[in-house]
Amino acid sequence: MFDLIIRNGTVATAADVFEADIGIIDGRIAQIGRDLGPARREIDAAGKYVLPGGIDSHVHISQPSGAGITMADDFESGTRSALFGGNTTVMPFCLPEKGAPLREALADYHALAEGNCYTDVSFHIILNDPTPQLFGQDLPALIAKGYTSVKVFMTYDDLKISDGDILRTLDTARAHGGTVQVHCENEDAIKYLIERAEREGNITPFFHTQVRPIAAEREATHRALTLAEVSESPIVIVHVSNAEAIGEISASRARGVKVIGETCPQYLLLTAEDLRDMDWEGAKLVCSPPPRDKASQEACWRGIENGTFDLFSSDHCPFRYNDVSGKQAPKAKTSFRHIPNGIPGVELRMPILFSEGVLKGRIDLPRFVALTATNHARAFGLYPRKGTIAIGSDADITIWDPEAEYTVTHADLHDNADYTPYEGLRLKGRPETVVLRGKVMIDRGALVGDRGDGHYQPATPHPAR
């Protein structure tokens, strides 16, 4: 007897769409077909889409954010919000304090997550303190233990590392089966433009978009891809916002560089002009890279449609707006440079792409599944355990109602921020039932799972490349 059967739904994977029932035993998919026999529980998914649970591989939860600044979401609220958005796995970043051993930082991060998650989690490592021991001992050992993904920055004084250390990171990861993500913006150019803007009295949130121009992202993207080419290493370029950076990815691929590209909802729906019109309330939309213009939005949609982008992530990085430990920090109104950087979005990532992409004919269901689940699992060592509907895979499944129509309002969301950048957006289609490793967590819109049902999932290193 099956523990659960999902019957009569339209099943989609990254490769196919078909009508089938799904039988689940002990948290895994045991059979796919028709007339599967009895089950302890059945769900009728007639008229609904049955999709793999989403994997958001770019979220920030309980991350150190500077003196007096607190991120809005901890693991409880962040994973709860993710679950309501159709996600069954999220991948936040472990950021060590400068000088702190990586192993200690990871132990502390595990303690924050343990017993508090509604989705499964797997961790990336932010590498901000490169040392010979890290490259020679620590990073290879951590990759082998399931921490297979490292993120490096080309911007922010307290995070950026040199080109030489990016090369060492790429080489070490390639040799041991890890994956390197890069935040691409030219810090020297940005600092120069910040100083000029402040001299001229241009300090409102809108000017955050002006001091991080497309050229600074394009140059850094070109440089990161050049370093990957020099080291013959694969690379992930995160949160791409414009046609010029997309062009660098395409050109590098044509030269044989193995590059994964990622974009996010803010680059499809927001523009820099939105911040101009909001005056100081524009702090709600301050993120990096910043939103661009309508032409950049169309370029990002083309990248989604034509396969340039492999990943669609939220870059969920929430701070409360009406909070002195968030966007209203004491120094925030002295200059845009002091506004906590990031916006919430994990719950709306998949509904936005479903409504604006699938239902408007820009992409089909398999492409949606690839962009929101399968490609994330493949890129970061969770496939085929996660990210697909297949016999033997974890029974992480989301049932979508394609006809549901609604207006986005933060009052209906489940994060711990106090606003959404997408207030008032009309969407169609939403996840109504979410199953995590065979357990129904959300039942027709109601939370029925428990905090702590989500668990840490180690990633599998890629074969050495």
From TrEMBL:
GO terms for molecular function: hydrolase activity, acting on carbon-nitrogen (but not peptide) bonds, in cyclic amides; metal ion binding. The modification N6-carboxylysine is found at residue 151. Its cofactor is Zn(2+). One of its GO terms (cellular component) is cytosol. The keyword Hydrolase applies. Gene3D superfamilies: Metal-dependent hydrolases, Urease, subunit C, domain 1. Keywords: Hydrolase, Metal-binding, Phosphoprotein. PANTHER family: COLLAPSIN RESPONSE MEDIATOR PROTEIN, HYDRANTOINASE/DIHYDROPYRIMIDINASE FAMILY MEMBER. Belongs to the metallo-dependent hydrolases superfamily. Hydantoinase/dihydropyrimidinase family. This is D-hydantoinase. It comes from Paenirhodobacter populi. The gene is hydA.
